[in-house]
Design a protein that fits this description.
8-stranded mixed beta sheet, alpha/beta, 8 helices, 19% strand, 243 residues
Length: 243
């Protein structure tokens, strides 16, 4: 089941405007407008909606998506193809879009050299063994300038009718703010990133103490990556499959 559809069923009574998933994607678009990254990778890209939105950002020259489910990507990947008008009036910038089938628990050299990596509603779908490997893959190996991670804030769940344990049947966990921030701060410390916390989906008036419905961590690498560190222990073997 589509994770955005499932979520909208639960949050429909609260009526987030725009819908919560659109607020998350708009947060990324605003961040792209601020930092102007040239190479962006979306991990857990699912139906490629965020990639489709980002293809219209003029600063971006390379887009990459990664997901464990190839069939979901293939359903909507046609939206990433050039439009007829793109051939009639080619843009001044070139744009390369590549989709990869694989796990965020595995390292692949095709994911090196990105400026921004987004992980939107991804980590809560990971098994414990995958979550343990995730920081080393993203922050240690890929080591982009900026990483954005969003995940449900479990403190908000009592306000969502119909949610008993988790918001989606595939979620392995949902963290409260203290749990997410503890994990994020330790990850940032270990890999020399700073991190700031924010979110989307404001609570109802009088319920502000529960925080945002979706909590977000924005990680920024403290130091430029040196040539030596960029090449050290980087595997040459490809493990992802191009879709």
């Amino acid at each position: 089941m589509d994770k955005n559809f499932q979520e909208e069923q639960f949050t429909g009574i609260i009526k987030f405007t725009p819908p919560l998933y659109k607020q998350r994607y708009q947060f990324i678009k605003d961040l792209v407008g601020k930092y102007k990254p040239k190479k962006v990778a979306d991990l857990g890209c699912a139906d490629c909606t965020l990639l489709w939105m980002l293809k219209f950002c003029n600063c971006i020259e390379v887009l990459a998506g990664l997901d464990i489910c190839a069939s979901v990507m293939k359903e909507k990947m046609h939206r990433l193809s050039p439009l007829p008008g793109d051939y009639l009036q080619p843009a001044e910038r070139s744009l390369t879009v590549t989709l990869h089938h694989g796990s965020v628990a595995h390292k692949d050299p095709c994911m090196l050299g990105f400026d921004l990596v987004t992980c939107i509603e991804l980590i809560e779908h990971l098994e414990q063994s995958e979550l343990k490997k995730f920081p080393e893959v993203v922050f240690g190996f890929m080591a982009p300038s900026i990483v954005v991670i969003s995940t449900p804030n479990s403190e908000f769940n009592p306000l969502l009718p119909g949610v008993t344990l988790f918001r989606h049947p595939d979620h392995k966990f949902e963290w409260n703010r203290a749990q997410f921030q503890s994990w994020a701060l330790e990850t940032a410390r270990r890999y020399d990133y700073s991190v700031e916390f924010t979110g989307v989906g404001h609570p109802l008036t009088g319920m502000e103490k529960v925080g945002f419905c979706t909590q977000i961590g924005v990680f920024v690498r403290k130091y430029p990556q040196t040539t030596e560190s960029a090449q050290s222990e980087k595997p040459t073997e490809a493990v992802y499959k191009t879709v």
